């Protein structure tokens, strides 16, 4: 009986001890979940609020009053809302009391960007003309200069970027682009994007600028199908001459440009008389006066537009085919004109008039040059072993653009030697 009573007392003591230990652990966990004292009945600290389609959770911070706050960006109103998630109101629920040291509103700055462009000066250090945030038009040899600024962006070397130009930019600055920004003949839109504490500038809209660069302008000026572009044999020189016509030809000029957007107007001018013909970039068959015979006339086409300006000269000379009248007279004699092999023949000549401009004469044997002919007269002995043709050719300038050529040739026969038996 005593033994039974003793065992019952032992079981009782063990049971009470186990219950006390369990109760201790339960109370300890409850205290930790409640915030470790001090707050007593405070709610557990919540995690970050989720990001929804209409808002973005920006972060959680501890206020000066010891409370926990959430910042949320609204995509519809573009505002940052701060909500206290541990504060108590009279109902004992989480309220909307705000941290007095961290108010919302203007002190919260979302990243914004401003991008403008201008024509760079020759040194690449400034602008020529005004800045634009719209469309900037550049000539083929002009460069764009970007000027940008941002609000709320990081203060670091890669806070901003302009794809297609540079991806590592400070939050504000200016820089001149290379010659291929954009490539000639293209129009491109450049967008400034800046990163900040609460996201990137596209949240509130990035800043764009459009740049158009024209191709290098060029023009073509031609005449209608009269005359020739080749140099006639009777012309002194064709250097700088585009077309040679005759007095019977009616001259018409036509022109075209490589880009009607870059070059919008053209003017053709007769440099002799000053007369002009204005017209559109492409025009055909404009009647113009021909130069007089043995004279030259020069026309200048000038075209301009937003892509720049360009000009082209066109020179026309009028020459009718020249007869022998007015050219040098060549008198030639060869004696004897029949010789035996190994015998000599004598060539003599007389050129008149000797004072004609640019007179040049030559003596050939079977089309091979023997010598330059002395003017006005001279002679030469030549030993023959076979029949040969001698020719004297004279060239002379007989006008401003005329060059006349006169010649005379004589054949000398060689009799073969026969041996008598």
Average residue-wise pLDDT: 78
Unreliably modeled segments: 1-9, 11-16, 21-51, 90-107, 200-204
Q: What fraction of the residues are assigned to beta strands by DSSP?
A: 35-45%
How many helices does DSSP assign? 1
Number of strands: 29
Radius of gyration: 51 Å
Overall geometry comes to elongated
Largest sheet: 6 strands, mixed
Instruction: Classify the helix fraction into a percent range.
Output: under 10%
Helix and strand element order: HEEEEEEEEEEEEEEEEEEEEEEEEEEEEE
Structural class: mainly beta
- Distance N terminus to C terminus? 187 Å
* Count of individual domains: 4
Description:
With 421 residues, the chain is mainly β. It folds into 4 domains: 64-108, no CATH class; 112-213, no CATH class; 219-318, Immunoglobulin-like; 329-415, Immunoglobulins (Immunoglobulin-like, Sandwich). Helix content is 8%, strand content 45%. It contains 1 helix and 29 strands. A hairpin with a 5-residue loop joins β2 and β3.
